[in-house]
Design goal:
It is a single chain. By secondary structure, the protein is mainly α. Among the domains are: 69 residues, 434 Repressor (Amino-terminal Domain) (Orthogonal Bundle); 100 residues, no CATH class. Helix 4 runs antiparallel to helix 5. The chain is elongated, with a radius of gyration of 27 Å. The relative contact order is 0.05. About 4% of the residues have low confidence.
Length: 402
Amino acid sequence: MSEFAARVRAALAENDLSIRAAARALNYDPAYLSRVLSGRQTPSAKLARGLDRLVGADGALIALASNNAGLAINSERPPWGARSDTDDDLDALELARRVEASDIGNETLNCLEEAFDGLAVTYQTARPADLLRDVRRHSGYVTKLLDERKTLSEHRRLLVLGGWLSLLAATLHVDLKEGAAATSRLRTAALLAQHAEHPEIHAWTFETEAWRALTAGNYPRAVELSRVAQSIGPRGSSVAVQATAQEGRARARLGERIEAYRAIDRVQRLASTMAMRARPEHHYQYDPNKATSYTATTLAWVGDPAAEAPAREVIGHLPPGSDPEAWPRRIVTAHLDLALTLLSLDRLDEATDAASRAVLSGRLLPANHWRVLEIVRAVEARQLPEAPELREAYEELRPSPK
């Protein structure tokens, strides 16, 4: 093992970093980093600089990597037309220099990736139109950077970033019932995913289309798209779990009870193997708690009274006295699930109260207005005294005619 490799391993241990964590932080293949740190491969100058910054070595690792490289370049040129090993060395160095030449830098890309994660976490609580403005701004900046001088690695990271941002923008357009814009954004996300060879983003485009089909009432199409997303998404990935949940909800709307229950079981099984994340509200990172919300919706749609327990569990995560205008959208959805379930159990006062809380929260998405209308019509059919007030609240949700 080289001195460089030994020093890096010791520094990573001191900073409580695994090789995999270091590779992820520096955007390198863990297998490549493992070969370097076992002395089987020479580190690139870029890797040495990145590791030096990561562990705070103040240039010591860069110096070691330079010494270990042992490159001696002869200043004497061979006769015209002849080539030597030195020429090959220089050609290799020039190619490496051009590959690493960049006007962007790792820090800029790290900041952009962190910014996207922040936007994806904010999705649960932000107003869609406000969040869409921020997503557009970041997407425009990524587009600008694609015209700058950059390394191949940076180019791919920008494509991946553009794919994620386009996907989030498409989701927001779906939520706002802006169909044409959603279609354009999904096409862009799929194109960038293909160029970046990123199957997870590609799978998410189908999952998002499945959600749009579900809200439009095209349940067979939602099942079809969900299954495509599951086939494309990496095994055990967040999109595979989410697409399975979408399939279950679509099958529940079709009245396919057995298939819906099977989907619930698959979601629970897949989610139970996933580690809790530091930022569990990330829209594109599944965590076990999300399974509870999807279970509540699926059970409510098949008419199973068991939906009450998971719906109340989701609502129970709210701190007492919390402001409805700050509710995550999952809480609003759980109130709709609870209202639908309580109606089926003839617990009418509780049902109308849960529905009213959802409607008056101000947190309902246009894409979910159809769910409220479903409950309003059920309340009106039973001629409950709360029906006129609930209908009025629903009508206020609808946009005024232009």
